[in-house]
Amino acid sequence: EKIGFAVVGLGKLALGQVLPAFGEAHAAKLAAVVSGNAEKAERVAAGAGLPRDAIYSYDSFDRIADDPRIQVVYIILPNALHADWTVRAFEAGKHVLCEKPMATSAADCQRMIDAAKAADRKLMIAYRCQYEPHNLEAMRRMRSGAIGAPRMVATDNGRPSDPSDPSDQWRLDRELSGGGALMDIGIYGINAARYLLNEEPVEVRAWTYTPKDDPRFDETPDVIGWQFRMPSGVLVNGSTSFSYHGTSRLEVMGEKGRLVLDPATNYRGIEMQLHGAEGERQPRIQAVDQFAREMDWMAQAVRGNRPIVSPGGEGMQDIRLMEAVFESLRKDGAPVRTDWNYARALDP
Ligand code: NAD
């Protein structure tokens, strides 16, 4: 029997990627939809073959407590809403898969972690790249020394935002997004630097380039360039933007080679290259539906067959690091210490 998921929020990601991915999933199935738009919810439920009593509104949501078809609540709402909805889902006795970024403050992350504990339910943050075969292969190559000792990481994630698209409007809103491009896609580079190097930044500094005459950036910064210093000494140079040309790039320069993921985070078409003594190689890696794999992982974790490898603590670490980036921006690039002794649990 597959594990039943209730999807909260029927926006771009839910409709474009997540609902279709249930068709590829082996252990997870769509059991209910939760939406503020009754007409859309009915249309989507009918299309997915769900009965009418599997449609919940934001008001009737808490009644999922009495619905045994639902084991997991998958939260796909604007960032600032993740914390309250996660707490509500735990109060209804369900497990939670929550989209990245986990929340818009470390305090909210802590609230989510505490609620999971109180309910004795599982919390997984939807870092799909931690379940994606190219990124997983990159982790393995790093651990096995394929490029020798790493010296430097470069990571850049940006795209032009479109203020006429409702899905970008909240991303440019400070309150709802928690901070523009960094929270939305810069987070991929921060997370990846950590899982590729398997160590945590001890110091952060950041600058921004935010054009004064671009109304998209009245509330949130545009380009942010940041640096992390790792305990080993390795440096990470990152950037993010909601105005530069679509970019999703990750490179690790090691003493014996260079590992490149470009594009590194796309839904489809991720590519990996290894440069070294033998020249350039492109390992053959079978692509999968990342969302199906991630939901199946959550389903297996609920069954007790797998550990959660991207738990609340992992989501909170990125939020705390992004808060440090914003703090450095406010101090015009002054270094901010981040050596609070977090350690990642394990690789997928
Ligand atoms: P979206 O704007 O397309 O969808 C959000 C949905 O939330 C909409 O249906 C909207 O109606 C609803 N909503 C409810 N309350 C709202 C409010 N107060 N203000 C605005 N909308 C409200 O956004 P999206 O692109 O689907 O992103 C949703 C979440 O998924 C975000 O947290 C985002 O970071 C995450 N996301 C993750 C990935 C990934 O690859 N893992 C990709 C895209 C988005």
In short:
Helix content is 33%, strand content 23%. The protein is α/β, with parallel strands linked by helices and 348 residues long. The structure holds nicotinamide-adenine-dinucleotide.
Could you explain how this protein is built, in words?
The protein is of the alpha/beta class and 348 residues long. The chain has two domains: 3-129, NAD(P)-binding Rossmann-like Domain (Rossmann fold, 3-Layer(aba) Sandwich); 133-287 and 309-337, Dihydrodipicolinate Reductase, domain 2 (2-Layer Sandwich), CATH 3.30.360. It has ten helices and 15 strands. Helix 3 (82-91) runs parallel beside helix 4 (106-119) and helix 4 packs antiparallel against helix 10. The mean pLDDT is 97. Nicotinamide-adenine-dinucleotide binds at residues 9-14, 36, 76-79, 81, 99-100, 126, 128, 166-167, 170, 176, 184. The site of nicotinamide-adenine-dinucleotide has 21 residues, from helix 1 and helix 6.
Fourth-tier CATH superfamily name of the largest domain = Dihydrodipicolinate Reductase, domain 2
The oligomeric state of the chains shown is single chain
Number of strands: 15
The CATH topology of the largest domain comes to Dihydrodipicolinate Reductase, domain 2
**Beta-strand content:** 15-25%
The SSE string, one letter per element, is EHEHEEHEHEHEHHHEEEEEEEHHE
The largest pleated sheet is described as:
9 strands, mixed
Mean pLDDT: 97
CATH class of the largest domain, named Alpha Beta
